[in-house]
Amino acid sequence: MNNNIYAIQKYLPQNYELTPMIRQDWLDKLGLAMPTSYEELKEVALAFTNKDPDGNGKNDTYGLAMAQNINPSYEMGAYWDYQTWYHKDAEGRLIPGFISDVRKEHVKFLADLYKEGAITKDFAVLNWTEVNTKEFYGGKAGIFIGTPRGMNPTYMQGLVDINPDAKLAPIPPFKAPDSSQGFRNSMGFYGTIMLSSKLEKEPEKVAKILEMIDYGRTFYSIEERVATNTEFDWLNGHEGQGYTIEDGSIRREVDEKGLSPYNYLPDNRMWAPNDEANGYSKEYTVPLLRDVAGQFEKMHAETKHYINPVNAVYSETRAAKGSELDKFLFNEQTKMIFGDKSLEDWDAMVGEWKEKGGEQMIKEINDALQASGITAEWQ
Hints:
This protein is α+β, with helices and mostly antiparallel strands. It has 2 domains: 19-185 and 307-378, 3-Layer(aba) Sandwich (D-Maltodextrin-Binding Protein, domain 2), CATH 3.40.190; 195-266, no CATH class. It has helices at residues 24-30, 38-50, 101-115, 128-136, 153-162, 203-217, 230-235, 287-301, 316-338, 346-372, and strands spanning 8-11, 19-23, 62-64, 85-88, 94-96, 141-146, 168-170, 182-184, 189-193, 243-246, 249-252, 304-307, 377-378. The strands form 5 sheets. The chain has a 4-stranded mixed beta sheet with strand order 3-6-2-7. Strand 4 and strand 5 form a beta hairpin. It is globular, with a radius of gyration of 23 Å. It starts with 7 loop residues before the first strand and ends with a strand. The model has no long low-confidence stretch (mean pLDDT 95). This is Putative aldouronate transport system substrate-binding protein.
């Protein structure tokens, strides 16, 4: 319409981004407290590497699980987050955390731990699934990331099978040098649905598609998620097949089994009135997963979140070159963590990034923010 492209957003909780979690049982075994600073996090990561936290008498554990593209980076708040436009350059413009001096210090922190064997050895060539199943949920690493929504019950059950007494806990955000304390929020949506322009002459078909989308997005409160609610029961594959009710809460079968009609809808994410209303923790079948997801829900409810201003504006350069620019920085910073490149090359790296399109992206985003009156804020 009018040469514009429109899309229907898919729901994503606002404040449930992936944030670090830790093996609480390992902390307890070594008599360590929950880390509240990077100095303490480093101490814990080294202890997990050198002091046999699982008590098997072998040197087979370490601190931080990490996959390719420095994922996760273990930012303990928006202040350190590479995706957050939080810091400013000498001209007073917001810049991505990815090129900030704070990120430089963070890369040094990771490089120091890597040198001590406290980070996944071959992380640069390991994909996300390998690090999940073989490293953290395989019982080797003591620190990873989690969230209330979308965690994998199969992975968690794998950890329980290896370590039946495993306990997990989220790591609360650290207090930053500027006294801020909190994580970044999400874009508020994940993925979109677009309809073909060929449907222009088929309004009845469009109406039916939109009806299906609305149906899949219908929100049911925790109290409404019961077998006597016929709509909910059918959508979720009927009690005893697609789900069960235990202790008053629904326990869904994993999506991979495809036992529920909602698995086949174009959008099956209930659009909740707020994050807490989702009650994700109550729906997991693995007790350990229910427990840690509940802890994440509580932590985020008690935590401030930074509204990332870059999500509110459009940059043509970011849309066209953003992934390429990120890849360049991931590659260069990975080399610095490995020790193949010096941190003294940081300014040269940033300069090259700017020449590749980063400078134009900074200009476009700051111009758009100024034109729209959008400012960075916490909530």
